[in-house]
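Quick note —
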Amino acid sequence: MAQHQFQTEVSRLLHLIIHSLYSNREIFLRELVSNASDALDKLKYLTVADEGYKSIIFEPRIDLSFNRDAKTLTVEDNGIGMNEADLIESLGTIARSGTRLFLEKLQDDVKRDSNLIGQFGVGFYSAFMAADKIEVISRKAGEGETWKWVSDGKENFEIEAAGPGEALKDSQGSRVILHLTDEGLEYANRWSIEDIIKRYSNHVAFPIYLTYDEKEYDDKGKEKGSVTKTDRINSGTALWRRAKSELKEEDYHEFYKQLGHDTDEPLHYIHTKAEGTLEYSTLFYIPKKAPFDMYNVDYKPGVKLYVKRVFITDDDKELIPTWLRFVRGIIDSEDLPLNVSREILQQNKILINIKNASVKKLLAEFKTLADTAASGSDAAKEKWETFISQYNRPLKEGLYQDFANRELIQELIRFKSSTQEGRTGFSEYAARMKSDQKYIYYITGGDEKTLRASPLLEAYTAKGIEVLIMDDEIDDIVIPSLGRYQKQSGDTSQEWELKAINRSGADEELGDKPDKTAEKEIQPVIEKIKKALGDRVKEVKLSRRLQDSPSCIVADANDPSIQMAQLLKAMGQTEVPDTKPILEVNGEHPLVAGLKHTEDEERIADVAGVLLDQALLVEGLKLKDPADFVKRLNRLLAP
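Predicted structure written out below.
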């Protein structure tokens, strides 16, 4: 028997499972049944699409059995099966770069997040919550040798050729034998198994059978022995193919839990059956919580593709746009060929049409959620708030990536506001605008607290002009690409330009330009500051935005902001221009006005440096030379 060591991440995962996870322990059976279903899906596809597998007599099923005396629980399928290499790859390693993030999240709140095991696709290991030893006997379809994998869930696993007495029921498939712990023994009974299958796996598309012994009694009620029975314990129908009128909400919820490896109910679901030029069914779910790997490059796609109820793929990121990667569900087409390849899928007109129609359907549902919340019950408002708190950011990505649906998406995204509680949208902002206001104003940059404290807001607040607070780093890229907001109302439409108040030229609605005489008097001070700062700034200007603060920085209308430049560099872009800010100063502030009557170049340099550095700090930016700032400030404070 060859001994192998688990990959480091698997060892860490197993340690957590065995020593920490004890809530929702029953999900291990859901995960094993789900794996068996996947194996059947893969073989079903091959038997109809690959000549090499068409000779296999395929009668798919999943069999469960238990033996309380031997303390075992067995799950067997006649699916694709595994050979020695597959067993090492599938049960000894986790080949995803997001593993570390998953483990950290799991460790943060192990009791609550035990269901994440299934969401991450490593559900097999959850069996160690109920077993202290697991055996897997498997034979790959089309191959002659049967293999046996054994582990106690610690550091190692062993693989050897299976013995004569370990044959599978069919010529291919896998048998998973759990040697249950004392705590796990509670699942070795008919009622527990049936209950778990009904709750989590009732709509698995293959029949699930339970074999058990039932005691028999004579006419006087005396036990006379037992008989072995095998009952089917799931409905096994393709739920998405059934008419909506036949289904109850709990049917949809049950199916989601099995599909999404989730113990929570979904936030929302959308079931569509299209007939006509194209025939297809879709069933999409929105989870209550965003998938934890949503921002990983190697995120796990959540939509499965079927053709005429034959599973095709569940790892194709082309089935739905990346900005909708939080959606879970099924696409089942009547028109695609069964042997469609992944390369063909990406360019297939049928799938592209289904994808486009699905996106519009999802967006229409999201809009309904928003509209219902605006005029509906507290429950509807809570549902919408949950949705937007989880998925506002990927929707913004759609605003940037999906030009065809931009008008629909812009009605969904939400922002914080300088005048309103909670989140608000463009449409609501437009309805509150002052009658003579030309633009929709916003500010981007750091965190919400920093933005609300920005001196750039002072004049807008004084004038009663609302400013949208955009504290998501993606806003600095997305909103400038949008440029304008257009509101359609019946046959008429209105359009407003979006203006960032941290850019030059956004202050024209703040009133008249500074008094000519005052401007002339302060101009020498502007020149002194500009000379002192040199190439640290692009320009120094007298501000009409500032009320109390001495200075602020803005970006030139054609330049990326400093925050955006930093973000682009962090994203790995090398050709990012070295942007310089425009410094605006408040001519009435004592720190600025005090320079009118001094020619002391050192003091001018100190004041100019402090004006720029404090403006940078207020915007949440790092100083290149903090020590220099402190020295200048100390000199100015000295008596």
